[in-house]
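Why predict the complex rather than its parts? Because the way molecules touch one another can change local conformation, and only a joint prediction can capture that. The input here totals 753 residues.
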Amino acid sequence: MDLTLGPDQELLAQAVRRWLEKSCPLSLVRRLEADPLGFDPGLWRELAGLGFSGIELPAAYGGSEQSFLEVALVLEEMGRALLPAPFLASAVLATPLLLALGSEAQRRRWLPRLADGRSVASLALVEAGWRDPFGTPALEARAAGPGLTLHGAKLFVPFAPQADLLLVVAAGPSLLAVERGAPGLASRRLASLGGDPVYEVRFQATPAEAVGGAGAAAPALARALARGAVGALAQALGAAERALELSLEHAKTRHQFGRAIGSFQAVAHRLVDMRSDVDALRFLVYRAAGSLGNGRESELAVAAAQAYGGEALRRTFVHAHQVHGAIGFSTEHDLHLFTRRAKAVELAWGAPAAWRERVAAAMGL
Amino acid sequence: MDFEFSEEEERFRAELREFLAAELPDWWRGMFVEDERAIPFTRAFCRKLAARGWLTLAWPREHGGQGASVWKQAILREEMWAHDEPRGPQYMNLNYIGPCIMRFGSEAQKRRFLPPMAAGDAIWTQGFSEPGAGSDLAAVATRAEDRGDRFAVSGQKIWSSYADAPADWCFLLARTDPGAARREGLSILLLDMRLPGVAVRPIATMAGPHEFNQIFLDDVQVPRDCLLGRPGQGWEIASAGLAFERVGVARYARAGRVIELLVEHARATGLAADPDVRQKLADLRVRYEAARLLNYRAISLVARGEVPAAEASIARLHNTQLEQLAGHVGLEILGLAGQLTAEDPAAPLRGLLHRQWVRNVPTTIAAGTLEVQKNIVAQRGLGLPRPG
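Output of the joint prediction:
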């Protein structure tokens, strides 16, 4: 047992932080929120050049074979900087799914391109009416000549127009690959409160290729979603840590009644509650990520992190705004960028009550 | 980063559980019970632990310990607290009174006080709080007048656990220099409870007898060789002791045990199918996981030779509130039967949850209230300015 980071892990987190401070200022985050594509190809190439786009892949496909705990540390730093890039969507969610289910030909075709950043992949999963990403997919894959075509729509697909490869979950569940520019493929950016680029994607007799057997995607998909949920939470953790730093800075410099507001216990104790929640969340996330990376996957560890996370993020950002007062509501201040992104994570990966139900099941209830 | 105990550590836990299963009598419910068997049992139990080298597991070998890793010590604490702390009053010796004597005591004091603790033969109580000095501990008014070869001590101490056990010794915070600034005028005396002028009055509490006591000190003559550290070093020593104590009690482990028993109860009674019960128990479990990890974070720092300050207080914030919540949720799950006290033969789970609830009413107050803990985190951990 040792809950301190190893020297390599510390170096990794520091290197990512330094790179992000240089290459991803909040001015870029603001600019890309307003950009129709929300994507900066230069930034993505830089990120790929540092080896992050193939972070977990085997070296045989050009990857850097890091474990999922390291991935979580990288995501935490990216969340802290609100990095607008398809790292989670492509490198963490879609790429390992292709590795798990793809044929050797599919792997050889796509994985090296995904690893070196020439291509971006994304997962099209959610359908209308779902309350969380664990719904039952109904999207139809029909036989059309020698191949298959897709008919229907998906929601909340990150970076869809940039995705050279869309992995689409169809009824079964089955996984299918759709290439960029395929006929009958259209996307529309959703006006989302997080400000990160998510799309509705429509398929009208869009040609697709099966990835793995029909109806055989469930186990790999469940693993991918556990990783996605923990990965997104790691990003939100980074955002929460930054919100705490902003709040502390404000509490130490803002004077009212002739003194720094952080000297009032009512304010100080909110900041302590934030510290205490963010710390708890951090170790829950690390443990869940560790369990996903060492082959001893723990449903309880993942569900506990998610159940705590949803509630803790809400509390943390309520406190952050209360400490900031009116200025935190203004878009001139940076706080809202973090608040909105954390709220989006909270909503994107399922309600705390649903995760608690999973905890209950894992406890033997 | 590693979230697993080693095989050796897991074996040690299994051995401890086996030992506890063999040694704990069926009637054992922890301290604070109206049962005359309790104190003699804890004495005998501590001697047995001592015989196995487990009583002072993590103490250095030179002081009669095993020099075991902090993780083995953590496992020991977890198993003890999960089983109603069968070491009784003596856990305090091991957690902080002994370590304070090791750190601040003279060689003669170490030779005199540590071996009886290591043998399981000494019961200590603590004399910190006073009627006028609770959260504001630096307001201590008990006077220890320097008379050269001894101190003449007069005053009142309150909320002293186990003083009526009876305790052999008291770890006493007293004012030796009334002229000095508040914190600078305090000293620690190792007070023999059998000295003339010492009187103990138990305080009846919600949890029953034998919990807290008042100690009256009337011109007690304490020999000078019972001064710990220097005159005026009392605040520093008391703060160090409280810091040891903050991670010294594995309260999360107690909550973990209560959760296990509640899950068994829910499964046996069919309550496990109730969505609300499932949510409540899962929420408790999630908070338990969080508390445990925060304790392990603090212990990881100790293992690296660092002293956790704010980290220990954060762990304690989670521990104490978790223990309280376990009682509240447990009683809620029992419904009407939750009203039965532990004394009623019809109380479900042999009164476990009534005890869990009532014993933890003061948990967020003792050894520094929640608010005091938060002030520590605010000032030492977050660098916020002091109030006022």
